[in-house]
Design a protein that fits this description.
Oligomer: single chain
Strand content: 5-15%
Structural class: alpha/beta
CATH topology of the largest domain: pyruvate-formate lyase- activating enzyme
Number of domains: 2
Number of helices: 22
Distance between the termini: 44 Å
Helix content: 25-40%
CATH superfamily of the largest domain: tm_1862 like domain
Shape: globular
Strand order of the largest sheet: 2-1-3-4-5-6
Bound molecules: iron/sulfur cluster
CATH architecture of the largest domain: Alpha-Beta Horseshoe
């Protein structure tokens, strides 16, 4: 199945194997998603930049069949080092399944001592891993905590001779455990109380009690697409404007785990844009939500001067300047997403989104008048304290928005449309909402909802309520997720290592989530519904993101009082502690 994909891909790296150290790079989802993932592309290129390394990709097979590398169709058993890049919790079980399908002993504890092809060292990394490594921890010999650039090239350089000398696995574990950004799960023991709450984390005195993440401080060339394919989910040349986000939205894990927010220099962004292959004109920018209007304007100017069109996944409604609108219009962009995220102005204060109804209405009108007549709106249900009044306010907002955009569409001879994407809110580690329940029930009700059914029901009812309230609006498409399915993501998101057998049963045994949980004697309530206490030790605190103790709880309290927190100002602010721990540009 790989061959047809690679015939359409540009930027594929093929190397001869002789004399080189083979590294398998796994993406636990299908090729169109893998090739759209900038982090996955980055690791592939970083490693292949080393002459002595040959790195080949494995993606999740779309049809049953043997697991083979994309580049040379070799089996996973030919590689002594296996890296997994995991961006999302819903891919966890596929990663477990890929290891098993590739003939690799899935659990690190069960792998033979000799590291070799067939009995490889398994290293996992990616955003989902440095948000919460624990559900996948039993599968990993090592986890990379943080961004790839400052860790991975040297790590692989160090591993190659160790593997060649057939160093013992447990020696490698100890040797790697004190490297910056390296977490070696087999050296840590987690114990749980009879009620299922984490009791203690034990480890040898020679390894750190917590593993501090590593971040890229600056770059001369912003990260950008290196493989392009018409099969990619996002069919464009992607360039990063920076990493992290300065806004501090309280629901967003990326906004916390990628701190400090870093905007790359204009030169670094332009250097990345100039590396696009000849003839490629469609450019996607990542990080637009953080970029100031002036920066966006300058980049917009570059793109216009170079006959490029601009695309992006979503845009902050208060970041739309005249110049940007002109570029968007010239780009013949058909649709843009704006994300109110919270149903009401009150909830947007609670989540620290900082967008008013006025911002949203103005942005929508301006976009449609510029010819971008298809708007997508993202909103979450199940936020803490959410009530029917919040939902009513949102229904009113959509009605008003529809009225405001109609004339702009008509002027252009087009029908303006709205696609509403309604998503169940998942509380994430390292956010001020890490303490709250999936489903949005009040703490007492959540404590009693032992099988999670009331939480799921509450979300379903809210979806129905919104659907009813918006019925009859012409040219409105309503899309909602299924709360019972999102419950699985909510479990994995704040999960611990007891979930590993569940992931394996789903990934290789074909079990459903519910059945796999039942077979392991685990319940969703423990992970997804149970409100967390202020003093509870969370399993993801094995990591150190530089966020000072108590900060997330404080932010949670501010949320409950609907108080706003200012955006990051890395030059002056030391509020959360990250800018003391890391150098922000
Ligand atoms: S210390 Fe301030 S500027 Fe730095 S990441 Fe934290 S909140 Fe943002």
């Amino acid at each position: 199945m790989s061959a047809p994909y690679l015939t359409r891909e540009t930027g594929t790296i093929r190397k001869k194997w002789k004399g080189r150290f083979p590294v398998a790079l796994l993406y636990p989802n299908t090729y169109p998603l893998a090739v759209s993932n900038l982090g996955f592309q980055l690791v592939y290129s970083l490693l292949n930049r080393q002459d002595r390394v040959v790195c080949e990709r494995f993606v999740y097979p779309e049809t049953p069949g043997p697991l083979r590398s994309l580049e040379s169709a070799r089996p996973l058993g030919d590689f002594p080092l296996v890296l997994g890049s995991i961006s999302f919790e819903h891919d966890f079980f596929r990663l477990a399944g890929m290891l098993a399908a590739g003939g690799i002993e899935p659990y690190a504890a069960g792998r033979p001592q000799r590291v070799a092809p067939g009995t490889p060292l398994v290293v996992l990394g990616g955003a989902a891993v440095f948000m919460n490594p624990e559900p996948l921890a039993p599968f990993a010999d090592l986890m990379v905590i943080g961004e790839a650039e400052p860790v991975l090239p040297d790590l692989v350089r160090e591993l190659a001779p160790m593997v060649a000398e057939q160093a013992k696995r447990h020696h490698m574990h100890h040797a790697l455990a004190s490297r910056p950004g390296c977490y070696v799960p087999p050296l840590y023991r987690f114990s749980f109380s009879p009620t299922g709450v984490l009791d203690a984390i034990r480890h040898p005195a020679t390894v750190p009690a917590r593993v501090r993440k590593v971040v890229l401080e600056r770059t001369g060339t912003a990260s950008h697409s290196m493989q392009l394919s018409p099969d990619a989910e996002l069919g464009m040349y992607m360039t990063e404007l920076g990493r992290g986000c300065s806004r501090g939205c309280r629901f967003c894990a990326a906004g916390f785990i990628y701190r400090p927010p870093r905007l790359w220099s204009r030169e670094a962004v332009v250097a990345a844009l100039e590396r696009r292959p000849q003839g490629v004109r469609r450019v996607g920018l990542l990080g637009m939500e953080m970029a100031e209007s002036a920066v966006l304007d300058r980049i917009a100017g570059y793109l216009r001067d170079n006959n490029c069109s601009l695309s992006f996944s979503s845009l902050r409604a208060d970041r739309i300047s005249e110049r940007l609108l002109c570029l968007l219009a010239a780009s013949r962009l058909k649709s843009v997403a704006i994300a109110p995220d919270g149903c009401s102005e009150r909830l947007r204060r609670l989540i620290n989104k900082g967008l008013t109804e006025r911002d949203l209405l103005q942005a929508a009108r301006a976009l449609v008048e510029a010819g971008i007549v298809h708007l997508k709106l993202y909103v979450m249900l199940g936020l803490p304290t959410e009530t029917e009044e919040d939902l009513d306010e949102f229904i009113d907002l959509v009605h008003t928005l529809r009225e405001r955009i109609l004339p702009g569409g008509r002027k252009r001879g087009r029908v303006a449309t709205i696609t509403l994407s309604v998503n169940s809110f998942v509380p994430k580690p390292w956010t001020p909402f890490q303490y709250v329940s999936y489903g949005g029930l009040a703490p007492e009700a959540a404590m009693a909802d032992r099988d999670g059914s009331r939480s799921v029901m509450a979300l379903r009812q809210k979806i129905r309520y919104l659907r009813r309230g918006l019925k009859g609006i012409a040219n409105l498409r309503f899309r909602a997720d299924r709360p019972e399915r999102v419950l699985q993501q909510a479990v994995f998101s704040r999960g611990d290592r007891r979930l590993a057998p569940v992931l394996l049963a789903m990934g290789s045994g074909g079990r459903s989530f519910r059945r796999a949980m039942r077979e392991q004697g685990l319940d969703s309530w423990q992970y997804a519904i149970r409100p967390r206490q202020r003093d509870e030790t969370m399993c993801w605190q094995i990591l150190d993101h530089g966020i000072r103790a108590g900060y997330l709880w404080q932010e949670y309290q501010k949320a409950m009082q609907e108080q706003q927190t200012k955006p990051c100002d890395t030059a002056r602010c030391r509020r959360c502690g990250v800018c003391n721990a890391f150098t922000a540009p």
